[in-house]
Amino acid sequence: MKKYCINCGKAIDNKHNSHNLKEEHSFDYCSSCNTSNSYEDLDKIEDHEFNQKVHNNIIKANDMKNNSLCFIVGGFILLIIGIFFFVLSFKRNVIGIRVFSPMCFEFFIAIIALALSAVGLIYGFIRFLSAYNKKKYFKTLLRKIK
Ligand SMILES: [Zn+2]
Questions:
Q1: Which of 10, 76, 87, 135 is deepest in the core (most CB within 10 A)?
Q2: Taking the model in full, what pTM does it have?
Q3: Looking at residue 125, what is its pLDDT?
């Protein structure tokens, strides 16, 4: 499972760390904020602090998950708007047959809505996965330190 720093929330890259650090600490050391993530040899106060930090990270990951869902919902709404305007860009010609007219304003709006929808959906999905993994990691960590 991917590891995350309890202090800054960034993913801990073990490969990158092992070059400049002693072996026994390399797995718990965050190179982004230069702090240790080790929960061994902690006294009671430090242990409590560690616990709190993990809890805060779970809350943050939860917020991030909700935020990503907003992007996904927004993406879906734009997708529907895009499809609606795409349908509208089929206009009746002089003999009353609907023909696709790519130069019309409706098609222009459809393209913009669909493009924004794709961005929202992809970004939301990536963010959702990242938040989900983070939450899972910190929940596992919380169970381990108890
Ligand atoms: Zn960090």
A1: 135
A2: 0.80
A3: 98
